[in-house]
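User: Hello, can you help with two protein structures?

Assistant: Certainly.
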Amino acid sequence: MTVFVHGGGFVFGGLESHDRLCRRLALLAGTAVLAVDYRLAPEHPAPAAVDDVMRALEWVASRPKELGQLLPGTGLAGDSAGGLIAYLAACGLAGTPALPDVLFLAYPNADLSLSLQSVSEKGEGWGLSVQDLAFYIAQWVPDASLLGKFSPVEVARAQPLPVRTLLATAGHDPLRDEGKLLAEELARGGTDVEYRPHPDLVHGFLTLDAVSPAARHAGDSLLAAYGSLLSHTAMLRRDRNAPPDAPNGAT
């Protein structure tokens, strides 16, 4: 099972905007997908969306009958702003049974201060402008003094996250450097991180498969890699939790 958190700058997007991506995720990663229609800013500023995703993960962890029979293992995936929300939700569930086994972050927002070099290098002309980013962030965190509290790079420095993580960035993306920095901070804190840069692609390439063969190929590879990581991690956990063989043939 994968709980999916859509992007959209904290202020737009939903089940319909990412329906195609969720279908590709289910097909290529071999996982059931539960997409969270979380509350949006500005009507619902931070941490409303994080709280919604945490509640969804807690519900999945309770194995409700509505979900039917599921393969073992729970993943948490998000793109762009959804990646930030997913990361903070995982941090909020650390030490609980609802903590996911694998975290998949695609070109996530990670530094709400917008202070890294790629913001100025790629902030215009590549589909996601720095002006739009600043607007989205201000809607979700109106109090600028709280930006660090909701910035994954800052959170990662203070709180290690024991969740295997796949993190992807795009080269022509103002969020490129903060995604890379988050991967580095996670690794420094002991998280098992696989970092996958895509130097020739733009922000949002997972939803550009219908218009760009390069985006489709990269997305297919990334989604399949996530599925393999989730399956492998779930298998390892199952083996660790299996009861030891009974001695002398006893049952």
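That covers the first. Now for the second protein you mentioned:
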Amino acid sequence: MTEPGWLTETRAAYDTVAVDYARLLPEVVEGPLDRGMLAAFAELVGPGRPVLEVGCGTGRVTAHLHGLGLDISGVDLSPGMVEVARRAYPELRFEIGSMTELTAPEAGLAGLVAWYSIIHLPPELLPGVFAGFHRALAPGGHLLLAVKAGDRRVRREQAYGHRVAYDVHWLPPDRLAAQLAAAGLAVHATLVREPEGGEAGPQAFLLATRPAEPGADRRR
């Protein structure tokens, strides 16, 4: 079966930039509002329960959430990014994989993070991906998304000092919320902030939950 072009391009781009990406973004560089959403997610999930970051890249956000007490691992499409993550954070688990073919056990996760990773998927694939997130989350489990807020596609041909070729999709938060709801995930917080630093537009963060079964203890 032929691999989709967007997937081949995205993997190749991030394999190319992996080392310089880690060099240029060595730590969590997000601002206070972004870190606040990460902290809220960590508090909602709580310690000792399995969490997965999909599209973890070099592992910097995975490591940040681990520092907030989460039992978290990461998965990324790019072998180059995973290799850098494993070197940088040997105490954490990183695997190669795609969120379009998520292999997490059914209802096996207390939390799931997609931090600026769904922006590389063709938007028509998002409903299926969100259905996969719902399947992987346990009842009462939490999802955190970070995206570029808008409604356009940007073709990247230069990144982190390298020539590349891949797409970045700016996504409308309202549409994402509706797609999450259609997948059975209840959005309970959305934050849209204005651009900071060199950002080209607003950024959006959505917190959603797979509803707990009636009468169930979601932390059991």
